[in-house]
Amino acid sequence: MASPLVGCAAVNSLLFWAYSYGKSIQTGSVETTPTLGQIAIAGAGAGIVNSVLASPIELLKVRLQVQNATAAAGNTLFRGPLHLAQHMTRQFGVRSIMWGFWATVAREVPAYAAFYTGFEFTKRRLANVLADGDSSKLGAVPLMCSGSVGGVCYWTACYPLDVIKSRVQNGTVPPRGAGYIARAANDIMKEQGVKGFFRGYTPSVVRSIPAAGVTFATYELVMRALNDTK
Q1: Phi/psi at 175 (nearest 5 deg)?
Q2: Could you tell me the pTM of the whole model?
Q3: What is the span of the domain harbouring residue 27?
Q4: Tell me, what CATH number does 26's domain have?
Q5: Rounded to the nearest 10 degrees, how much is the dihedral formed by the CA atoms of 131, 135, 140, 142?
Q6: Does residue 3 surpass a pLDDT of 70?
Q7: What is the DSSP letter of 22?
Q8: Of the candidates 87, 113, 111, 117, which has an alpha carbon nearest to the alpha carbon of residue 99?
Q9: Number of domains in the chain
């Protein structure tokens, strides 16, 4: 729990900054409403930037989550993310902390394109129904509903890639070569078939409904409060 908990603020700060910056580059102004296509592009770009922090944080998380299962084979039980990070850098070098970086990028690009597009699409539709088309008048509940849709879109767009990423990051040695993502996908297919790419999809989606709902509602309401103080 410590790895995602400590990294959560940094990851979300970087993610939303990159997303806002991506929108402003395309529209030329933060006050111009972007199209859904521009939203998707900004989200994809934010996913790439976000991978710089998300990759090492998730590497430590997924390896700690399975360590009790692998301890029977004589592997070390780690006290937390710092202990694991120290062990990995001693064994594989400093670069090992970015183990699975490109697999993370491959997941984050479609994930955040869908995440932000799903949120904006739902928010705009709800604004048309509840607030005469003005999304700035939406309250916390409609914003949470919009965020929840974004969360479902996130996992639906990327779940097989997330399974591949976790497989790569739980490997016994750091991946090598440009084709390691394809090799991991091939291994999953051989061992488990197509169903292997969707194991755990339902709990991930269920978790995302409150998590993404709260994330987006908090972001929108905090940004409004900050803008009101200018």
Answers
A1: -70, 150
A2: 0.91
A3: 2-228
A4: 1.50.40.10
A5: 70
A6: no
A7: H
A8: 87
A9: 1
